[in-house]
Amino acid sequence: MTISKPPTRLLDRIEVCAIANVTYPTIWAWMRDGKFPRSRIVGGKSMWLSSEIEEWLASLPVRPLKGDKQSDSEEAALDAISAKATAS
Question: What is the structure's pLDDT at 88?
Fold first, then answer.
């Protein structure tokens, strides 16, 4: 059995703000900074492709949980921060 993806649809400003749980000025700033997909102009309105919003959501970092094993690079970064804090 093959599971097919739902078709790409257009999302308006209200839907995108609800999905991202932020205000429109934040969405605008993220687009300007290249942190969020750019909107399309459809009938004079800003619209986003649902597939691009889904990709953005999938690219967000996963929150670490207490007890998770940290990678060596994360441990080194935390050690450097701790050393700098104790030196002050």
Answer: 54
Query: Measured between alpha carbons, how far is 49 from 37 in angstroms, rounded to an integer?
Result: 9
What strands lie across the sheet with 10-11, from one edge to the other?
10-11, 45-49, 40-42
pLDDT tens, position by position, 17-38: 999 999 999 999 999 999 999 9
Residue type, 19: I
Question: Is 10 within 8 Å of 47 (Cβ atoms)?
Answer: yes
Neighbours of 24 (CB within 10 A): 13
DSSP 8-67: P-EE-HHHHHHHHTS-HHHHHHHHHTTSSPPPEEETTEEEEEHHHHHHHHHHSPPPP-TT
Q: What is the mean pLDDT of residues 49-70?
A: 92
State residue 21 phi and psi, 5-degree precision.
60, 40
